[in-house]
Design goal:
This protein is of the alpha/beta class. It has 16 helices and 15 strands.
Length: 388
């Protein structure tokens, strides 16, 4: 299958360094900063190797790890190299993740000056007991200054990440976190339920009963409370964990505050990943880089991509992903587009299962869309498995 070169693509850049690894995090990172210079050189070289990719890119996402470990000069070199070797659209969304404990006013000013136009702050919680449990390097008092510095530097497109379902957390304490977040009026909020990723220190502690996970029913209550509270504060849910601020102005051309880059993942749009452990996808092909900074550097310096694995999705696998990813979004699956892509009738193929799920109030089917209800979102994985 030839890629659709007219569809805007995304670039994900994985910065694999952290001052300290969070015990719940399953993403690849290391704390040996002595490799930073060699890594940055390899990252530029990987861009050069991939420079013939036939796409126009309208998003660049700098994630990690902790990208704010890098200086503005480092980020500027990354962005400039991307512009040199890839076709970058004039209205590109360049997002950068920052940790409140690894940033200051000067860095925000620097990041803005080199082209970053969307900032994502990993707040996680406004309560120190939660931050301590999560192993974060920042405290509650670091969050508000970080937001203030970002605004002062000129960032008018900001996201905050929060985590709920933390052991010991209550609905009341979670709503307090949400209140403090909306008081800062970020354009975007991501509210993730704490998960115990296999192989992480936190999952090991859970298995050894060193703490008691929050009961599923309480976590479910927090999920529903999140939607209700944020909706009342003009944040519209567009994906299970993501909410965008609806501006109160009367302008006809209101800005869309949804994450342009993250929507590519849910819509199966093409994207390429650079850096160790980064994934790339150009339907039907997915491949991923090695989870080792040293091997990545060695491979790329040898003028070869550091690819650790690759899969070509079958038609059935593509259908499964279209369903599982489509149901994550509040817009749901566009059934006519699904029918056209896979040459089937979605409604006829899944009629019996959909009827059962509709009767239980878990799914809703309209003329051209199939989406989960709020209650259905609590059982998204189970519902997806029933449909596939």
């Amino acid at each position: 299958m030839q890629p659709d070169q007219n569809e805007p693509a995304g670039i994900y850049l994985h910065i694999p360094f952290c001052l300290r690894k969070c015990p719940y995090c399953g993403f690849y990172s290391i704390s040996d900063l002595s490799l930073k210079k060699a890594f940055l050189k390899a990252l530029m070289r990987e861009m050069r190797i991939l420079g013939n990719i036939p796409f126009v890119f309208d998003t660049i996402y700098i994630g990690g790890g902790t990208p704010s470990i890098l200086t503005a000069e480092d980020i500027g070199e990354i962005v400039e190299t991307a512009r040199q070797f890839f076709r970058i659209s004039a209205d590109v969304e360049i997002t950068m993740e920052v940790n409140p404990g690894a940033v200051d006013q000067e860095r925000f000013i620097g990041y803005k000056s080199v082209g970053v136009n969307r900032i994502n702050i990993g707040a996680q919680s406004f309560q120190d007991t939660n931050l301590l449990f999560l192993g974060r390097i920042h405290s509650e008092k670091d969050i508000n200054p970080a937001v203030k510095w970002a605004r002062k530097a000129g960032f008018d497109n900001m996201g905050l990440d929060l985590i709920y379902g933390i052991p010991g957390q209550t609905r009341k304490s979670w709503l307090l976190d949400l209140q403090k977040a909306v008081d800062l009026r970020p354009e975007h909020l991501s509210c993730y339920m704490l998960t115990y990723e296999p192989g992480t220190p936190m999952d090991k502690d859970r298995q050894e009963a060193r703490f008691c996970p929050l009961p599923d029913n309480l976590a479910g209550d927090m999920f529903e409370s999140t939607i209700e509270f944020l909706s009342a504060n003009n944040y519209v849910q567009y994906e299970i964990s993501n909410f965008a601020l609806v501006q109160s102005d009367k302008k006809a051309d209101k800005r869309d505050n949804r994450s342009r880059h993250n929507r590519k993942y849910w819509l199966s749009a093409p994207y390429i990943g650079l850096g160790p452990s980064a994934h790339s996808f150009v339907e039907p092909v997915r491949y991923w880089n090695t989870r080792s900074v040293t091997k990545y550097i060695k491979d790329v310096n040898g003028s070869r991509l550091s690819i650790d694995g690759k899969e070509v999705l079958s038609r059935k696998q593509q259908m499964i992903e279209a369903i599982s990813l489509g149901l994550r979004m509040t817009d749901g699956i566009k059934t006519d587009a699904f029918d056209k892509k896979f040459d089937v009738s979605f409604k006829k193929t899944f009629a019996e299962t959909i009827a059962y799920l509709e009767e239980d109030g878990l799914i809703k089917l309209t003329e051209n869309r199939c989406s989960l209800t709020r209650n259905g979102m609590l059982f998204a994985d189970s519902i997806t498995s029933m449909l596939i």
